[in-house]
Amino acid sequence: MPITEVEGRRLTLSNLDRVLWPRTGTTKGQLLHYYATVADTLLPYIRGRAASFVRTPEGVEGQRFFQKRPPAGTPDWVTVEETLRHSGEPMDQVQINDLAALMWAANLACVEIHVHQWPAAAPERADRLVLDLDPGEGRTVIDCCRVALRLRERLAEDGIEVWAKTSGAKGLHLLAPVRGASSASTTAYAKRVARELQSRDPGAVVATMAKAERAGRVFIDWSQNSARKTTAAPYTVRAQAAPTVSAPLAWDEVAAARDPAELVLTLHEVPGRIAQHGDPLAPLLDPGRAGTLPD
């Protein structure tokens, strides 16, 4: 097995030729190459946050599992911090704070990286608001785009700037930087806005959790602001049939989208987008852009 050095850390890489995406022939080596290429753009969104992973050791069509606890054999140079489980009990989780840790995780076929809306240094003090737009049966990501534009206008009324990314699956995620908010208050605000849009257009939007209510409508999932929940990180690869990425979008792309295929972006395409256009989500990282939630 090849041994490489990343930022002074020795890593043993394994099974780089293993095909993780059979339908496209994409290998684990290509996954590692993607994460190495986009690391400078990706890491600021996950650094200092407890990370959870979707792991697919035998490929995305094989067994998969969601892992919160540190994987067996986690090196002592990977940051591990105590967080809280849903029950309130303490639990250790890793942080992906640098390129070496990112490569270590990718080598374990940690395809997806998920993080909380709060940094580990300030548990349950949200610095991000997230709205997950999920198209119900008969709707597509294009319908999510229309709802996203309306949510952008609505949040702006409260001084909240928001940016969009593909979920990497069927829908969109909207993210906004916030200050001085608890996870509970962020959840309450997101729920209030989602229900407001539902009341304005109940034929197109739904904000209730019952899956039976979602057919023909876009579900605005406000619950991912909960302190215990996580969301797929910007630029993470997803364990879908193709190696799609949760890719940030410019608002003009959201407004102009007409075909769902336009918003299917893979690990083969995203590095070129960054090189050509930069990172449209970058304002999320600027503390000066953070808004204060209304009372």
Q: Please report the number of helical segments.
A: 6
What share of the residues lie within helices? 25-40%
Largest sheet: 7 strands, mixed
Shape: globular
Give the N-terminus to C-terminus distance in angstroms: 57 Å
Question: What is the alpha-carbon Rg in Å?
Answer: 19 Å
- Share in β-strands: 25-35%
Low-confidence stretches: none
Give a quick set of tags describing it.
295 residues, alpha+beta, 7-stranded mixed sheet, 6-stranded antiparallel sheet, 6 helices, 17 strands, 26% strand
Provide a descriptive summary of the structure in words.
It comes from Streptomyces polygonati. Keywords: Ligase. GO terms for molecular function: DNA ligase (ATP) activity. InterPro entries: LigD_pol_dom, MtLigD_Pol-like, NHEJ_LigD. Its EC number is 6.5.1.1. With 295 residues, the chain is an alpha+beta fold. 26% of the residues lie in helices and 26% in strands. The protein has six helices and 17 strands. Strands 10, 11, 12, 13, 14, 16 and 17 form a seven-stranded mixed β-sheet that branches. Strands 5, 6, 7, 8, 9 and 15 form a six-stranded antiparallel β-sheet that branches. Strand 7 and strand 8 form a beta hairpin. Helix 1 packs across helix 2. The radius of gyration is 19 Å and the shape is globular. The mean pLDDT is 95.
